[in-house]
Amino acid sequence: MKKPDYYELLEVQRDADADALKKSYRRLAMKYHPDKNPGNAAAEETFKQIATAYAVLSDPDSRSKYDHFGEDRGQAAVDPFSGMGGMGGVRLDPGHLRDVFGDTFEELFGTFFGRTNPHQGRDIKVRCEVTLELACAGGEALVSYQRPIRCKPCGGIGARAGTSPSACESCGGGGQLRVQMGFLSVVQTCPRCRGSGILIANPCSQCRGTGLSPEEVSRPVQVPAGIETGQTLVIKGEGELGRLSGRPGDLHVEFIVKEHTLFSRDGRDLTCALPISFPQAALGAQVEVPTLDGKARLKIPAGTRSGTVMRLKGKGVYDLRGMSRGDQLVTIQIDVPKTLTPRQRELLEEFERLNAGDSDGHAERKSFLERLRAFID
Q1: What is the CA radius of gyration of the chain?
Q2: Which residues contact 109 (CB under 8 A, 6 or more apart)?
Q3: In the chain, what percentage of residues exceed pLDDT 90?
Q4: Between 85 and 227, whose confidence is greater?
Q5: Which end of the chain is more exposed for a tag (fewer CB within 10 A), N or C?
Q6: Domains along the chain with CATH numbers
Q7: 127/253 Cα distance (integer angstroms)
Q8: pTM (2 decimals)?
Q9: Confidence class of residue 373 from pLDDT cuts 50, 70 and 90?
Q10: pLDDT tens digits, one per residue of 247-291
Q11: How far apart are CA 93 and CA 199, in angstroms?
């Protein structure tokens, strides 16, 4: 069977220099990579052949031998599917390929040469209940949660005191098994030690060989002014510890704002109800209104009706950027007494008699009665 010519495979002239070889190989490898051509057996075969060709031609000694024995175009002395044994065992070197592909090496060849990445610790989620006052003004709150830390009795190694872990016999302590597939080496996580590289015959009774034990943590967190229920603050590195020197996870604090006895929240505004007496509504008055900053004075105009909404500027909630503050909306409610003293009843009846002849004062009631009669009739 005629064997492929390596120069033709790489689409270069026979006098191509190292840079030309590298540039052409990079282009073709990306074009025929199996991940970019899923299910395409022909592309996978071409990918293997161009990798073999580059491994031979990029090495000056193996290229010289190839040129000497392969003048009959395609009758190469190297079998691309035999591990390159005819060229003195030339093999693809991960470091050499990193030099060719740079940042894209891991994307193209990571699954072939293996990546012993550290494992980042998992994130921890915790809820933090805060008062409306704290949510509006900002401040500090305390959160409590549980996370694993290195076991103190065994120092985090997982073995009982007086004993020590041993290297995994299957992977030799490397945590990975290398399987040769032609000229490529596939690296897999060792199933026996699960990638740790060690075996523990006598596990620590405290952590049961995990090297980790639970820890109760209480720590203050900064509550941003203007935070709302459901919003989350992320604190980097305060989650679970990472394996194999991986960085720890993060702490996600979800805030829950408690209901208030007086105020409700509408975005950056606060709302509340203010009961006043009928004389205050009719005659007008200066009243005190509770706010999150203390008491404030509010002027009630004469003739104010129940349900009127009045605004206290700048008495609401700060926005998360701290640039502005909302208002406090006060809904007036006229307080009608359930019981009256004889004197109060006498005065109100007198007021009603005096008011009966006031057509202006009863204009709305008169209009309502007329509409009611029309509806009934």
Answers
A1: 40
A2: 94, 97, 101
A3: 29
A4: 227
A5: N
A6: 6-109 (1.10.287.110), 114-152+213-259 (2.60.260.20), 264-334 (2.60.260.20), 342-376 (no CATH)
A7: 6
A8: 0.54
A9: low
A10: 788 999 999 999 999 999 998 999 999 999 988 998 999 999 999
A11: 30
Of 95, 97, 116, the C-alpha closest to 47 is 97
Pairing relation of β-strands 269-276 and 328-334?
Answer: parallel
Q: What is the pLDDT of residue 92?
A: 47
Is residue 76 within 8 Å of 70, Cβ to Cβ? yes
Region 36-47: what's the mean pLDDT? 81
Identity at 326, one-letter amino acid code: G
Give the C-alpha separation, 47 to 25, whole Å. 10
